[in-house]
Amino acid sequence: xxxxxxxxxxxxxxxxxxxxxxxxxxxxxxxxxTCGVVRAxxxxxxxxxxARERMELLFSAMHEVALVPELWTEVAELAWELDRRxxxxxxxxxxxxxxxKQAGATVITTDLHFAKVPGLKVRAxx
Length: 126
Fold this sequence. Notes:
About 55% of the residues lie in helices and about 15% in strands. It is built from 7 helices and 5 strands, in the order E-H-H-H-E-H-H-E-H-H-E-E. Helix 1 (about 5-15) packs parallel to helix 4 and helix 6 (about 70-85) crosses helix 7 (about 90-105).
């Protein structure tokens, strides 16, 4: 299972890449996860209605990790732990990391700070 971070979707959209093609194998296998934070970060920046509809179609084909109250408790604990270690990450990224951990997913990202999250599987893309 993989969870693609919003920064990579945004890059692909800017480059006008075919995201369905890039994620095709994962879509066919059903091993893509997402969460509301990624969905919101990506969709807020999509300008055209057709592009937005295409992204919504893509997100609807993924496993959605729900940010239920128990997961927000985990987000708060993780943020507290990281802050005490001097690793202050954006709350949105901590929520994405908690969702990925919940799903047993590897985060695919261009943001190197995800590697600071204990127990999180990360694959960096340059």
